[in-house]
Amino acid sequence: MPDITRDEVAHLANLARIDLDDAELDHLAPQLSVILESIASIADVAAADIPPTSHAIPLTNVFREDVVRPSLTAEQALSGAPASEQQRFSVPRILGDEQ
Amino acid sequence: MTEQGKERGTSLLDKSAAELADLLAAGETTSVAITQACLDRIAAVDTDIHAFLHVDAEGALAQAAASDARRSAGEPASPLDGVPIAVKDVLATEGLPTTCGSKILEGWIPPYDATVVERLKDAGLPILGKTNMDEFAMGSSTEHSAYGPTHNPWDLDRIPGGSGGGSAAAVAAFEAPLAIGTDTGGSIRQPGAVTGTVGLKPTYGGISRYGLVAMANSLDQVGPVTRTVLDSALLHDVIGGHDPRDSTSIDHPWASFAEAARTGAAGDLSGVRVGVITELGGEGYQAGVQQRFDESVALLVKAGAEVVEVSCPNFVHALAAYYLIMPSEASSNLARFDAMRYGLRVLPDGDPSAEDVMRASRDAGFGDEVKRRIILGTYALSSGYYDAYYGQAQKIRTLISRDFEAAFEKADVLVSPTAPTTAFKLGEKLDDPVSMYLNDIATIPANLAGVPGLSLPAGLAPEDGLPVGFQILAPALADDRLYRVGAALEALLEAEWGGPLLDQAPSLSDVEPVETPGGAA
Amino acid sequence: MTETLMPYDDAIAAFDPAMGLEVHVELSTNTKMFCGCSVEFGAEPNTQTCPTCLGLPGSLPVINGKAVESAIRIGLALNCEIAEWCRMARKNYFYPDMPKNFQTSQYDEPIAFDGYLDVEVDGETYRVEIERAHMEEDTGKSLHVGGATGRIQGADYSLVDYNRAGIPLIEIVTRPILGAGEKAPAVARAYVATLRDLLLGLDVSDVRMEQGSMRCDVNLSLAPKGSDELGTRTETKNVNSLRSVERAARFEVSRQAALLQAGESILQETRHFHEDTGSTTSGREKSDADDYRYFPEPDLVPVAPSREWVAELKAALPVPLREQRAQLQADWGFTDLEMRDVVAAEAVGLIAETVAAGAPPQAARKWWVAELTRRANEDGVELTELPITPAQVAAIQALVDAGTLNDKLARQVFDGVLAGEGEPDAVVAARGLAVVSDDGALGEAIDRAIEANPDVAEKIRDGKHAAAGALIGAVMKDMKGQADAGRVRELILEKLA
């Protein structure tokens, strides 16, 4: 089943917001194909009636009381910011719309 | 740097954490003295080992002084109050750099402490610094650290395991009596195996993940990295237990692990059923690894254990399931490193948009292995592939859990070699991801099923003189069995060796410094 | 670019609209969905954040139990099934106002599903089917700097405040509303209005559309009349008033009809609504890039509300809106026609609050439905957006009841309050509006009126009390309206008895 093309890797890199250059694409595509090949066996192993496990230890209903806890100060919140202004995180111009 | 820092043998450095705790309790030494000895040792050998990414001498000594003050007032905060520790750089430490071995977090100083770090501080353990690791814990050799690899104290040309090679090497090189690691597919146990140290991955939910920078949330666990089984239990008692800030943390009345280890050290295992997992051994396992494993099993029998063979047929699919679940979760976890709120920001030429800056920063800030896994995870989660990959991998998890359930019907603990080989050479598998991934073949099933696992030294492989790890697995919530059986085996082995395995490690006092590519100070 | 539009009536004659509504409601919990930060509106930027809602490395979410309770109550009030077991999921996409670059939401396992809400338009009931109501978290808020408009387009850079990030949201999604024909936009509006009242009654949200605590996306497609197939739909985002819901829907009907008539196809896209022009413009095209890579949130464990808990919450729900309205109508003594006007004016809640503040129901109805609705229409705002509270309306009515104001003066007090001159008392004092209740001053004015109209006075003396109106008018004019007409009448009849 799996053979991942260079174009596919470029598309995935775009989805993952990583600016891969040509050399990286050339390098990555065959590596990913090999990895996928080695894990492809998985597709036919489990029968349809096997339930998936998303959490190994089955807990449910872990809730928090609706009680306010101290927040960080704005200085702490912004302490790692590459740029800030007016007590806000400064980010380059945003192209796309909100979703 | 003092000459004392280089010399092991009679110094405080050789003592286990339990022994140091006894000396502190008896008033025979101080936390400042122990902490200074560790700092001296770090100064002496870490240019060769490169276990640390950041050393906080000032902070550690201040915490040590505070510990000594508590001790003189007769109010120690815990049995380990004053015993210094190293922390893997994947746990948030307020005021101390936390890089996860990545360029993208270079210089980031968290405004908060991980729960485990908070518990260490509350228990009075001075924090020596942050240890090296594969970038975002992705690797089995610590070669994927953006700050250069860590070297195995047994042979500086070899890998210390990974991702927590820094923590394991720091403990194996006597730079710290204790360390904290994290284990997603074996990152505590496999480094433990190849450095001759003890590493434990608890039951999933047994130790808080709050403040642990996630690789694969449903698999990650924090755990102790030590030189003895008892030390691991003592540390586990300090850092374990329910944390309301981690929704996956189990609220369970844990018994004292130190008690279990002390019981086990008496060496009597009569009535204990030990299951040898057929699928984790034999073909693909180095001869010396298999030999030391078999010898250890024989010792368990001698101690009264009943050994049975158990089959876990679905374990052969564990690696594949792991390499779908882990990158899927990781690809989503690592999305937050986008140069907007913290971390590296790269501004491309021209008038870049936020999107351009994200792309450029993530390209520059992430290393190859991280990019591989992000792309792989993005692929596995994509519409059209989800059912075939991620969904299927989750089903395999169910099958592996069922294998464990069946096996634990027949045995109280399961055993296997921790890793198929001893430490390989630096660079040997760097560009062969699949071969690198195979290192975790024996450790991964426990992460997928959430059960606890312990690795302890089983001796040196005859063919290369390098440490071999012995893995013990127990059912969820039965971590105490690992300590009981582990301490028993440790006692039997040390009786054979005439002392701890690490006594046979090179002293490092006369090694030639090696180049650390790209190493940070 | 101006759009070609087909007149609404023509469009509706040729096409059947199908509408869907996605309403996001911010819950009025004390804390955020996954952390203990306060959700209070209007705090200084980035002062209500913590490692979790900032998405700092290593932080973890923990579900706010109160938010789950609110979600279940909303689901029950919308006649939904409540899931026995469901999970949160990650919706992965990159956007600077989203700290983790994924939104923690629900995907194929919503907490509530398969419900309905009955709404009334012109006395007719329409059943709007609810597909699902699910829990998720809000994003941060961006300020766009530079450029001409302060809008996102053309800005030099943006400044992000994460106080809003992580506030609990419930997204309520309807199935397509079919068969409403020309009334589709009105049904959409009535649905949002009814939903707002229902949420107010549940006390789970402020539902302040103007503050963004209730936001509405309007999906609309057209199909040729009589056709069974659904057309390509557009999704108009963030339509943030009841009036706009109707306007946006009408605009899309006219726009899409013109395109279809011209043989063009509808682009599947998101669109923006503009309050000033009542029009929508193209936003983001839906594409393959919308691959959100949903998967179950591994940092959270499943939510499995016990049937006992759900039953308990169901038993404690307020009476359904329809019954509640019937009860209110009976309590208030309104005729069916009066009540329908009240519902149409979206004033049920306001009147209830005004009555609770002490005003007689009929007076409350008169002010809200006649006086204030007219003013809201003049200003092009929602009734709830007028800068006057039910308590202030009740206070003005109390002054009328006490004889301090008459209706004419009361209207001037409304002017003052709406103009921001302060509380009713302050307006009365500042404008000198109180009626003259000093009988001495009134007496003098009455004497002057009798003197000026001897023939009218004579008729009254002869017992023709109806003639008093002319004298009352003269007195009121003399007093510049600041007199209680009832009292004036009494005094005139006394003097001419």
Automatic annotation (TrEMBL), chain A:
GO molecular-function terms, A-Z: asparaginyl-tRNA synthase (glutamine-hydrolyzing) activity; ATP binding; glutaminyl-tRNA synthase (glutamine-hydrolyzing) activity; transferase activity
Could you mention a single GO BP entry for this protein? translation
Catalyses which reaction?
L-glutamyl-tRNA(Gln) + L-glutamine + ATP + H2O = L-glutaminyl-tRNA(Gln) + L-glutamate + ADP + phosphate + H(+); L-aspartyl-tRNA(Asn) + L-glutamine + ATP + H2O = L-asparaginyl-tRNA(Asn) + L-glutamate + ADP + phosphate + 2 H(+)
Q: What is its EC number?
A: 6.3.5.-
In this chain, the stretch annotated as Disordered covers 75-99
Asked whether the UniProt record includes Protein biosynthesis among its keywords, one would answer yes
Tell me which InterPro entries the record gives.
Asp/Glu-ADT_sf_sub_c, GatC
Q: Which terms are listed as keywords in the entry? A: ATP-binding, Ligase, Nucleotide-binding, Protein biosynthesis, Transferase
Q: Name one Pfam family in it.
A: GatC
Q: How does it associate, per the subunit comment?
A: Heterotrimer of A, B and C subunits.
What exactly does this protein do?
Allows the formation of correctly charged Asn-tRNA(Asn) or Gln-tRNA(Gln) through the transamidation of misacylated Asp-tRNA(Asn) or Glu-tRNA(Gln) in organisms which lack either or both of asparaginyl-tRNA or glutaminyl-tRNA synthetases. The reaction takes place in the presence of glutamine and ATP through an activated phospho-Asp-tRNA(Asn) or phospho-Glu-tRNA(Gln).
PANTHER family in UniProt: GLUTAMYL-TRNA(GLN) AMIDOTRANSFERASE SUBUNIT C, MITOCHONDRIAL
The record's family statement is: Belongs to the GatC family.
Protein name in UniProt: Aspartyl/glutamyl-tRNA(Asn/Gln) amidotransferase subunit C
- Organism this protein belongs to: Nocardioides marmoriginsengisoli
At the highest ranks, the source species' classification is: Bacteria, Bacillati, Actinomycetota, Actinomycetes, Propionibacteriales
From TrEMBL, chain B:
- Which InterPro entries does the record match to this protein? Amidase (IPR000120), Amidase_CS (IPR020556), Amidase_dom (IPR023631), AS_sf (IPR036928), GatA (IPR004412)
Q: Which UniProt keywords apply?
A: ATP-binding, Ligase, Nucleotide-binding, Protein biosynthesis, Transferase
Which reactions appear under catalytic activity for this entry? L-glutamyl-tRNA(Gln) + L-glutamine + ATP + H2O = L-glutaminyl-tRNA(Gln) + L-glutamate + ADP + phosphate + H(+)
Q: Which GO terms describe its cellular component?
A: glutamyl-tRNA(Gln) amidotransferase complex
> What GO biological process terms are annotated to this protein in UniProt?
translation
Alphabetically, the GO molecular function entries are: ATP binding; glutaminyl-tRNA synthase (glutamine-hydrolyzing) activity; transferase activity
Entry keyword annotation includes ATP-binding = yes
Q: How does it assemble?
A: Heterotrimer of A, B and C subunits.
Family the entry assigns: Belongs to the amidase family. GatA subfamily.
- In UniProt terms, what function does this protein have? Allows the formation of correctly charged Gln-tRNA(Gln) through the transamidation of misacylated Glu-tRNA(Gln) in organisms which lack glutaminyl-tRNA synthetase. The reaction takes place in the presence of glutamine and ATP through an activated gamma-phospho-Glu-tRNA(Gln).
Q: What is this protein called?
A: Glutamyl-tRNA(Gln) amidotransferase subunit A
TrEMBL record, chain C:
Catalytic activity from the UniProt record = L-glutamyl-tRNA(Gln) + L-glutamine + ATP + H2O = L-glutaminyl-tRNA(Gln) + L-glutamate + ADP + phosphate + H(+); L-aspartyl-tRNA(Asn) + L-glutamine + ATP + H2O = L-asparaginyl-tRNA(Asn) + L-glutamate + ADP + phosphate + 2 H(+)
Signal peptide span per the entry? none
Sequence segments annotated as region (Disordered): 270-290
The organism of origin for this protein: Nocardioides marmoriginsengisoli
Q: Which PANTHER family match?
A: GLUTAMYL-TRNA GLN AMIDOTRANSFERASE SUBUNIT B MITOCHONDRIAL AND PROKARYOTIC PET112-RELATED, GLUTAMYL-TRNA(GLN) AMIDOTRANSFERASE SUBUNIT B, MITOCHONDRIAL
All copies of the Asn/Gln amidotransferase domain together span: 349-496
A single GO molecular function term of this UniProt record: asparaginyl-tRNA synthase (glutamine-hydrolyzing) activity
This protein's assembly is summarised as: Heterotrimer of A, B and C subunits.
Q: Which HAMAP family match?
A: GatB (MF_00121)
Q: What class of enzyme is it?
A: ligase
Q: Which family does it belong to?
A: Belongs to the GatB/GatE family. GatB subfamily.
> What job does this protein perform?
Allows the formation of correctly charged Asn-tRNA(Asn) or Gln-tRNA(Gln) through the transamidation of misacylated Asp-tRNA(Asn) or Glu-tRNA(Gln) in organisms which lack either or both of asparaginyl-tRNA or glutaminyl-tRNA synthetases. The reaction takes place in the presence of glutamine and ATP through an activated phospho-Asp-tRNA(Asn) or phospho-Glu-tRNA(Gln).
The UniProt entry, under PROSITE patterns, shows: GATB
Protein name from the UniProt record: Aspartyl/glutamyl-tRNA(Asn/Gln) amidotransferase subunit B
List the SUPFAM superfamilies: GatB/YqeY motif, Glutamine synthetase/guanido kinase
- Known EC number: 6.3.5.-
> Keywords on this record?
ATP-binding, Ligase, Nucleotide-binding, Protein biosynthesis, Transferase
This chain is encoded by the gene named gatB
Q: Which GO terms describe its biological process?
A: glutaminyl-tRNAGln biosynthesis via transamidation; translation
